[in-house]
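Sequence and structure are kept together here, with a separate record for every protein. A complete record is shown below as an example:
=====
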Amino acid sequence: AFARGPMDGSRRRTPRGALAVMAKEPDSASGWEVIERPAGLLRRFAFPSYGETRKFLDDLAELSKTTGRYPDIGFGTTYANIMLHAAGDKVTAADSEFAQKVNAFAKPKA
């Protein structure tokens, strides 16, 4: 279960179940929320059907194989929560680049 809203610097459970301290502002241009501790990026993608969710997850699996980056994934019939952990203590350009690649093939409705 999630705690208070993520935009207020509150703590919240990530898809992995660990507590996270959220940054006050999301990376609004990309739709990803910047996590301070543990450092990373978080985004929820919503889809109108399971078929579209499955296509997104398959595309993400292919991207992960080619890049060697494997984010944490939580999903249901019409959504996927993606948590990309940063390699160090801050989100880097490489993290943002991976997130943008995910955005490129995702067609979220929310």
